[in-house]
DNA sequence: CCAAGAACGAGAGCAGTGCTCTTGCTTCGG
DNA sequence: CCGAAGCAAGAGCACTGCTCTCGTTCTTGG
């Protein structure tokens, strides 16, 4: 994010943003699969070929949207954690979960973009791993402060222990700067996955006409997950 | 599934199956979004227009694959329940979860087809609700026998109770023929969603380089979910 | 200050897609 | 046996992602 020097770079930044905006409204209206470069260009009054000066391919445009979405949900989680203050581990956990849920329900298509099935041959570019881990870092932060306060119960069983975690998880814990026992990671990952299972079912309409009291259902499950994560209030 | 009368109907059934087979291998190889009617027709040595005699549109072909996938995972779950026999509620639950997981890991693209993000403007046709509920009925069956044995603990709290469940859930419980208290449904739905959260994270590669001991992680989480579902061994 | 060169927009074009329509041919049922 | 229905094939339409070329415009080094 360097300073914009000339008029040309300024124009380029503006056009880039306009393309992303239009693409976002298309994704919002029709879903990611129906995103069309030509339609974006048409709506912006430019030739479709000109768009390739800004994004080398359709997938790159999608990646830009994915990064933005990760940043949005990550920011929502971070703000929820900040606002909840030092209100106890479980309270922080609840606040973050509810913030993520609010964001997901308000932006279903963007949620699908990042937490739905990965697109065809699409393998997440390295640009996305940073923004994607923002929301994981929030979870680490909660768990670390719980650990510091002595209210994090880490499973000492041998089956799921520190040996079972991978290099990316180790690196993320190290870079987070938090004092978090590695043995806590598998449990947190499991809880994390289950949380997004709840969100996916709700966002993708699998609870429609099945469960009406979804707020209560979610709050209850989040409490159970807090217990499962080892947060002892 | 009526009896095939003439040679013509037999040929039609065969061609229909061949189209589905080829489509399945394409989905397996490239994912659902890259499924191309023309490519299927090309591979089968027929004109693309001829394919429309068998499937009115690409979405209908996809729907047929989705129904098959639902049936496959439903059958896997049913067989696991049958084979586990009357071995106790938690054992049955574990067996079914592991069977579903095995199927999901063996058929990632088909899993994405049914439990990933719904395709663009695609709203699930009514053909899919029947096969989709097969696997849910397995869960109901486990819970009902647990209830009969007196080892199902149903939350008596007022927040998530029988009032919060929707018409489809009521109908499914009624049609299942099982004696299952309606108040148990929300908890089961939550546990169900969380199970598929675990599966989705694993199938979609979100645990790659993060958690290595995925078998143990899954088994441990399934046990926690059994507890959360109210299965008291 | 001005010319070389990079960045840019537009258009044509290629190969692919879903889908429709028309044209013949085959098979079935009255 | 003959009309009707089912079927395969081809041409064609509108659309897609993407590439290449050709002028134009802006930036910048000498």
Automatic annotation (TrEMBL), chains A, B:
DNA-binding region(s) from the entry: 36-55
A Gene Ontology molecular function term of the record: DNA-binding transcription factor activity
InterPro entries: Homeodomain-like_sf, HTH-type_TetR-like_transc_reg, HTH_TetR, MT1864/Rv1816-like_C, Tet_transcr_reg_TetR-rel_C_sf
Domain of life: Bacteria
Presence of the UniProt keyword DNA-binding in the record: yes
Signal peptide positions on this chain: none
Keywords: DNA-binding, Transcription, Transcription regulation
Domain HTH tetR-type: 13-73
Coiled-coil region: none
Name the record gives this protein: TetR family transcriptional regulator
Taxonomic classification: Bacteria, Bacillati, Actinomycetota, Actinomycetes, Kitasatosporales
């Amino acid at each position: 994010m360097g300073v914009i020097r000339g008029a040309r770079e300024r124009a380029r930044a503006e056009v880039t943003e306009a393309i992303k905006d239009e693409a976002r409204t298309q994704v919002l209206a029709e879903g990611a699969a129906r995103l069309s470069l030509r339609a974006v260009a048409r709506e912006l009054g430019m030739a479709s070929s000109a768009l390739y000066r800004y994004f080398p391919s359709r997938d790159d445009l999608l990646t830009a949207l994915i990064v933005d979405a990760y940043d949005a949900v990550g920011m929502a989680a971070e703000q929820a954690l900040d606002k909840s203050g030092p209100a106890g581990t479980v309270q922080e956990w609840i606040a973050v979960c509810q913030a993520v849920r609010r964001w997901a329900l308000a932006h279903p298509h963007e949620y699908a973009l990042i937490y739905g099935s990965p697109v065809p041959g699409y393998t997440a570019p390295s640009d996305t791993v940073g923004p994607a881990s923002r929301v994981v870092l929030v979870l680490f932060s909660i768990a670390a402060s719980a650990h510091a306060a002595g209210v994090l119960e880490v499973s000492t069983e041998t089956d799921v222990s520190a040996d079972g975690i991978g290099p990316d998880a180790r690196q993320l814990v190290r870079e987070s700067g938090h004092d978090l026992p590695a043995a806590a990671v598998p449990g947190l990952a499991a809880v994390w996955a289950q949380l997004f299972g709840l969100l996916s079912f709700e966002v993708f309409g699998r609870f429609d006409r099945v469960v009406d009291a979804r707020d209560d259902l979610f709050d209850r499950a989040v409490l159970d997950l807090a217990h499962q994560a080892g947060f002892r209030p």
